[in-house]
Amino acid sequence: MKSISGKQLCRIIERRGWLLKKITGSHHIYENSEFDQILAIPVHRNQDLKIGTLKALMKVAGLTEADLK
């Protein structure tokens, strides 16, 4: 799996219907009523997310590897 930055993941989940609720420090907090969950995405400049962090966020957001392209 290729890692992506937090900024890129934010763009992807916004296209999937997640709404930016607030920004706390370097974390963007997203909310989606369909999943009844929140996502806290770390956005540290343009650094890639660690694979484990990315996989965990993808699981909560209901994303697959194909969605990242």
Summarize the topology.
Elements: H1 6-15, E1 19-24, E2 27-32, E3 37-42, H2 51-61
Antiparallel strand pairs: 1-2, 2-3
Account of the 3D structure:
The chain has two helices and three strands. It is an alpha+beta fold. The model has no long low-confidence stretch (mean pLDDT 95).
Q: What's the main sheet like?
A: 3 strands, antiparallel
Query: How many discrete structural domains?
Result: 1
Q: Residue ranges: pLDDT <50 for 5 or more in a row?
A: none
* N- to C-terminal distance: 11 Å
**What fraction of the residues are assigned to beta strands by DSSP?**
25-35%
Q: What radius of gyration results from the CA coordinates?
A: 11 Å
Structure described in brief:
With 69 residues, this protein is α+β, with helices and mostly antiparallel strands. Helix content is 30%, strand content 26%.
